[in-house]
UniProtKB/TrEMBL annotation:
Membrane-protein topology: Multi-pass membrane protein
Alphabetized UniProt keyword annotations: Cell inner membrane, Cell membrane, Membrane, Transmembrane, Transmembrane helix, Transport
Role according to the record: Part of the tripartite ATP-independent periplasmic (TRAP) transport system.
Pfam family, one: DctM
Annotated organism of origin: Bradyrhizobium sediminis
Subcellular location: Cell inner membrane
Family matches, as InterPro entries: DctM, TRAP_DctM
Positions of the TRAP C4-dicarboxylate transport system permease DctM subunit domain: 5-219
Protein known as: TRAP transporter large permease
């Protein structure tokens, strides 16, 4: 059991030094991707390898039995996620072959030419699609269809790219079948329903940020323009 103790700088310093190896994990992930040493997937592998080395050799808190259990839990969770990815790929193939996305784009232009209304309608579409399709599949299917509409109504491609990415990231979290939601429920050993109720408060600021970024393009475009990256 932990207990309260008086604050002391030497204790803080010793604790910080002891935690440095573990604190290297986010540095490896963010730093490696920032400097281009590896991709996000490779960063995850590097972080897992580093954590494994710390658990076995430095902290010695990971026994062979625990390692086996962690491995089997990972395989079980990954298998469930891959089933969702497989179903999402099939769903994407159905959308492509039936040309439903193109028909929807044409209907969208016939409905309105106001760029803000179009962006809000696209948000709804992306939030629904993002719940069932993985981001890469969603981008591959929807960008070629939506980009002509975006350019036609005068929406900047960079603005649209940020809006689309944020939509798809939120889609991974919201029910009923967001992949991250599923992974969280497996890790926390909670039902999808209880996990959904736990993350609902966090969806509110995410959706508010999405609306702000959608309706105020300068939130996205100001920094690139200031740095001379956009005209």
């Amino acid at each position: 059991m932990g207990r309260d103790q008086a604050f002391r700088w030497d204790v803080l310093f010793r604790t910080f030094i002891a935690a440095l190896p573990a604190l290297m994990t986010p540095i490896i992930i963010v730093g490696g991707m920032t400097f281009g040493w590896f991709t996000p997937t490779e960063a995850a592998i590097a972080a897992c390898t580093w954590a494994l080395m710390l658990g076995i050799f430095l902290y010695r808190s990971l026994s062979l039995k625990q390692f086996y259990k962690v491995t089997m839990d990972t395989i079980e969770t990954t298998s469930g996620v891959l089933l969702i990815v497989a179903a999402a790929s099939l769903f994407g193939w159905v959308l492509t072959t039936t040309r439903l996305t193109e028909a929807g784009a044409e209907a969208l232009l016939q409905l309105t030419d106001n760029k803000y209304i179009i962006l809000l309608l696209i948000n709804v579409l992306l939030l629904v699609i993002g719940c069932f399709l993985e981001p890469i599949a969603s981008i591959s299917i929807l960008v070629p269809v939506l980009m002509p509409i975006i350019l036609k109504v005068g929406i900047h491609p960079v603005h649209f790219g940020v809006v689309m990415t944020l939509n798809l990231m939120i889609g991974l979290l919201h029910p009923p079948l967001g992949m991250v939601l599923f992974v969280l429920s497996r890790i926390a050993k909670l039902s999808i329903e209880r996990t959904t109720m736990a993350i609902l408060p966090w969806l509110v600021p995410l959706l508010m940020s999405l609306i702000a970024i959608t309706l105020i393009p300068e939130l996205t475009l100001w920094l690139p323009r200031t740095m001379g990256m956009l005209k």
